[in-house]
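Subject: for your reference before the review

Hello V.,

The reviewers asked for a structural picture of the protein, and I figured it would be easier to keep everything in one thread rather than splitting it across files. Below is the amino acid sequence we used in the manuscript, unchanged from the supplementary table.
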Amino acid sequence: MLLKLIFLLCLPVVLLSQEKKSKLFFKKLGLKDGLSSYNIRKILHDKYDFTWIATQDGLNHYDGNTIEVFNKNNNDSKHRLLGNDITDIVEDTARNILWASTSYGGLNGINISTKNIEYTNSLMENSTQLQNQWIRCIDICLGNIWIGSNDGINIYNPNTRKIVKTPIIPFRKTKEIKNFNIDLIFVDQYSRVWVFFSNLGLVIYSGNNYEILCKYDLTDFKLPYIKDYRIFNGLVKLSNNELLVATHNGFVNLSYSNEPKIQISDKNILNFDFKNENISAIVKDKENNIWFSTTDKLFKSNKNGSQTTEIISVENAGEKINLNSIFTIFFDKNNYVWLGTVKELLYSKNKPISFSPYYQSNDYKTRIDHSYFIYPKTDSFIYVCASDGLYSIDLATDKFQKIDSLKSYFFFYEFQKIFFVTNEKGFYIYSPITKKIIVPWLAYKELIALKGELINSIIPIGDSALLLGSETGNGIYLWNFKKHGIANYNSATNMEFAGSDIVNIMYKDGKNNIWILGDNQIIICNPAGPTFKRLLWKDAAGKPLNIYFDINETKNDYWIAAYGTGIIQVDKNKLNIKKILSVDNGLQNTGVYKIIKANDSLSYISSNNGIYLLNTDNLKCKSYYESDGLNSSAFEGWCGAQKNEFIYMGGDKGLTVINTKEHQNINTVPPNVFITRTRIESDSKIVDTSNLFLNRINVSSGYNQVSVFFSAINYSNPQRTIFFYRITELHTDWLSINTQNFINLIGLSPGTYHLQVKAANEDGISSEAKELVLEFLPKWYQTWWFKLLVLVITASIIYAFYRYRIRQIKKQHEIRRNIATDLHDDLGSTLNSVKVFANLAISGVKQEESLQQVKDNLTEATMSLRDMIWVLDDSLDTVDELITRLKQFAIPVAGASNIEAIIKSDSEVNSRQLTKEEKRNLFLICKESINNSIKYSEASQIIVAVTASGKKIKIEIADDGKGFDATQVKKGYGLKNMQYRAGQIKYKVDLQSILNTGTRINIEPF
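And here is what came back from the structure prediction:
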């Protein structure tokens, strides 16, 4: 009863403390983003800052941009796990391995650099015992992997790839407890392994010899106010020797030292009562704050436990993120918080939010689809004019109230506790007491002149007048509410309004002048007169600037938002344009609306695609979109206001409140860049290589395309990380590929190329460059040895041609010399004989015989000359011509001696070509042979037959004369001469003669 009374007395305090809440903006990853599954078991960042996410259907590798899945069904064997349900993951930094346990699958070891699986059960000895167990958790002690399952503990040594020990479990199974389910394994600084068993208790083992050091039953954990502890969900170290353990029934404090015993305490260090709560996850952040989750909430307790705060998620773009069913919590080195839930992965910068979107009420009953105008009455209470009515919002409680839902509202303004509003019907007064909309001329009859008028801006003039701007093309109205008079100034009454009577907004500057911004002009009004001065500006091309939506000022300049043009910087004194900021020099687009000054150097600008933060000192601009926490990226022209340090901007899906004090202007952390993968494609195969430390790669000569992939770790805003690359041999400047995280290389010539990659975060902070050396190997005909071979062959061909030409020239000279010799020996001697016989005839000595001899010699000389001319004639170089020439010579000569000459050839050889040397020598050999037969054989028939002999010819000359004994006859000059001539053309002469039978001469090639 005492405990219950204490609990009831403390309940108001507890409930009061639970009222403290803190908002964070969470981004999420789910199935549609490529995550393998919901039910996220554990989250881990490896030493390179890549995120590993264990789910019930695979292990996910996330670099802020893409997700790569490892599971049992993966087509790539390098990424195929033994099971799908990943129950735990732990990083082995000494081996560069990520260990992943799977239920009823076993243990997997993944190389963190290459993302290839290097350890599986199939590579272990005595490993079958793991395949049939539900592995629940793992941890590393002294290099060994302690594996906790539903059947006990196994200790695996990765060096020997063996299970070295299955430690004893000092509990016994009962009917109620059939399995030794292990919830947690923790390794302390003394190399002791703490193993928490569901429903049983705690056993502490020695990491050296695996012996039991101490044991604590479940009864040792029982505390007066708790029935029992059954499930241990997680733990954190509070100090060097103190643990806080989360269970399904609150927390337990464990104190320990180097002695093998612990102390169990119910000390409530969190100043918060969670005795009956299921604490599903617990962790410490980088500032030693303790974060933990219950079934449906997330909490943060400061390091001394004096204050516990509930963490809630801001509503983004109308999507409510509920922080419930959180299985795991993780903090990375930048103190970002990561949550694994039953539905998705969530992560946040863990900093006070600067953008608070408001779209619908906390009870989901009221929402603002499209806002046109915002009027902040206080920091936290605002009026919103929307497409479907007039609303009020209490920002502190997210309470929305619809005041009027019958019309669209466009303007709201309070002056001296009078609320003026404009809706689609005209200009009215709103009573916050009666919640009624009434016509203004009931209170001020002179305002009947504004019936049906759409007023979009009001400026007080002193304490007795208001200046009102007309959106319907009626210029401005000056209303003196004390004297009940109203005056209208427009193009009909003042020439300065001649350009346009439409008013977009009015603004009072530091000199109390009123700036009237219209579509085509700006009019500066001095209300004392009033007097007017028109400004008509033009751009560099001489075209008029137009559609002026808003104006603000800094110390030296006015800054004007002109839709379609950009931001115009105007000199305060000279009123001339100093600079126009557009897409060429800072803005993402020129569809700008409101420009609101946060301080003298920073201004927020709304647009039709995001909000820009402009530094007016250096003219640098930063962009924000829906992904950064805005209600939407589409804003409205008049929907912007300021109250103290808060700026309010709206449009599609409600509005966003900007806390300018909390806003982090610059992300100073550069992305961490890695070249993660290369893919070489050729006609025959694809070579895919993953390695974070790949710095050189050879590309075969037959490649078609080389793709290089890279990652840039920037969880702050990964969608806006920009990549740059250059190939130092080809580029001097960096080339931007925007958010594309790969490049394709095609058609590069053989050689060595240095590819450099870097990235810049959303604020332009660049990383260091990473380099990959690519060696493009030449094709066989591009290699140096082939080029040398071609050079040698070319030189050899040229030299061979040169030698051939020399031989040809020598042959020509030889032919000429032979012809000259023939002319000298044959024709010369014949002519000399003619000369002798002619002299004898002239002297009268044997005159008739001498003349006959002269005649015979001249005939012979003529025939010899014709033979030489025939040899030299290029058109007569065939076998057929040789046969014809032999017939012309042999038949008449043989006929004169009553010898029949038969000269024939096979038809297949008639068209074969003969060289001049062949033609000459073969003819002379045949001529010599025929002459010898006619002179000495006493034959009646001579047969010359020409046949084929390979690619050359064979000539056979035979007679039926008296023959002779070749062995008894001494070889004369004629036979030697024939053999000499045959040798010149690589032929041979074979003489065969039989006494009283005949003689046969064969002329054939070697």
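For the response letter, the relevant points are probably these. The longest helix spans residues 784-843. The helical segments are 2-18, 128-131, 784-843, 847-872, 879-896, 916-937, 973-984.

Happy to draft the paragraph if you're swamped.

O.
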